Amino acid sequence: MECTLLKAVGFKELPGLEALETCDVALFFTRRLRIDGPDLDRVKQYCESGKPIVAVRTASHGFQNWLEFDKEILGGNYRGHFREGPVQKAVPTPDAEKHPVMNGIGTIESEYSLYRTAPVASDVTVLMNASIPNEASQPAVWVREYREARVFYTSLGGPKDFENPQFRRLLTNALHWAAGKELQEWRPQGGK
């Protein structure tokens, strides 16, 4: 697997977007970028081309000049987040174990704020719902097809979430699934 990392310069530049022309899967982990013109056109062209997408947390509102990305492409409905503080628990939905993205994935806890994402698009398959005390649960991991491309999104993905082996495995599974690649059965370290 070969990865190309593009890093924003401030909020208005994202050099290297020509990499989208040849990539097999785009992973968007953008936050409040204000790119426009040819750069934003490249992102839109990739999304409209029917190529796979994996999007993490702030990607739902990652392109401030194209907030429609969340609803149109991801099938989401980002409307801010709940208060900071309570640990959120993302729990697999009853049918999630059948989906390859969920191979080896159980409940994931995150100290970062729970995103308000409900309701999601009707063609979305929610794989995990997350909740905090005294609030309604929200879709936190889902998949869908957009223009025949596989699309994955998770509202998890705060910095410390990447220290969690299950979260990293979730993203690995998502990348393989989106690309249509087989992934070996995952067993926890020390597992049989």
Q: Could you explain how this protein is built, in words?
A:
The protein is an alpha/beta fold and 192 residues long. The protein has a single domain, classed as 3-Layer(aba) Sandwich (Rossmann fold). The protein is 17% helix and 19% strand. The protein has 3 helices and 7 strands; from the N terminus they run E-H-E-H-E-E-E-E-E-H. Strands 1-2-7-6-5-3-4 form a 7-stranded mixed β-sheet, covered by helices on one side. Strand 6 and strand 7 form a beta hairpin. It is globular. The two termini are 27 Å apart. The mean pLDDT is 94.
Per CATH, the architecture is 3-Layer(aba) Sandwich
Alpha-carbon distance between the termini?
27 Å
Strand content: 15-25%
**What is the rounded Rg?**
16 Å
Q: Which structural class should the secondary elements be placed in?
A: alpha/beta
User: Would you list the SSEs in sequence order as H and E?
Assistant: EHEHEEEEEH
The CATH superfamily is: Class I glutamine amidotransferase (GATase) domain
Major sheet: order of its strands? 1-2-7-6-5-3-4
Number of domains: 1
Individual helix count: 3
Low-pLDDT regions = none
List keywords for this structure.
192 residues, alpha/beta, Rossmann fold, seven-stranded mixed beta sheet, 19% strand, globular
Write a compact overview of the structure shown.
This protein is 17% helix and 19% strand. The protein is an alpha/beta fold and 192 residues long.
